[in-house]
Amino acid sequence: MDSRAFLGLQQSHNPFRWTLDVRADVCTSSGFLFGGAGLGAAIGALEGTSGRECIWATSQYLSYARPGEVLDIDVTVAVEGHQITQARAVGHVGNREILTVNAALGDRPDKPSGQFETMPVVAPPLECPPRPYSSETAGTINERLDVRIAKGRAYRDLDGGLGDGQTIMWARLPDVIEGIDAVALAIMGDFVPSGVGQALGVRGGGNSLDNTLRVLHLVPTEWVLLDIRVHGVQRGFGHGLTHMFSEDGTLLATASQSCIVRFRRG
Length: 266
Hints:
Blueprint (H helix, E strand, L loop, with lengths): L2 H5 L1 E3 L5 E5 L13 H16 L3 E8 L8 E11 L3 E10 L2 E11 L34 H4 L1 E6 L14 E7 L9 H7 L3 H9 L3 E5 L1 E6 L8 E11 L2 E9 L5 E13 L3
Antiparallel strand pairs: 1-2, 2-4, 3-6, 3-10, 4-5, 5-6, 7-8, 8-11, 9-13, 10-13, 11-12, 12-13
């Protein structure tokens, strides 16, 4: 299974329109489309229409798509150059706009390159405990994600004391066996909100307002290390960044987000 099949993304007879059946298994436990799945579907549509790989994509989340609905994704190619395509995708359910994504796609392989971020030293994935959840995960996208905590506090230790803003997790999509791509990274990059609860020392997180994925270098890897840095929380909003590394330390991508801070009842 590849990442598009994981989401259930389908191209219509129109090469500029794609559809996503909003199943429960691409939704959160709160019953709406997972933000990373929405961005991933839009990236899949943009890459499929343009024939080029994602450089960066930024999404603005406007409304919720719920199980049983169909998300239509319309792609507009604004500029198509020799090496770079600038495009956007709008996801909507009927006349209700769910998300808007702007992106650049392309490749310039003959230019100098380098990596200047270093992967944190942590225990390997299978030596880290599974991520705990505060609600039922059966049938949701959380059941399809394998997430392990390399650095983070257990729920019993979330006593309201501020942390250092860093949470580190290993993540993988067990069903995706055809390699990590931008779509898969978009799904796994939507974890800044969970880092907010860790940073504040509370049982909570947030709803994403946006997500920007910047793809650096894709290499084969089963697990992706998510080095989540929450920069700050003010006025009810949290802001942060995730560095995403392969198992061999290659920086695959970064994902930055702002979110509405939410607290768990009880």
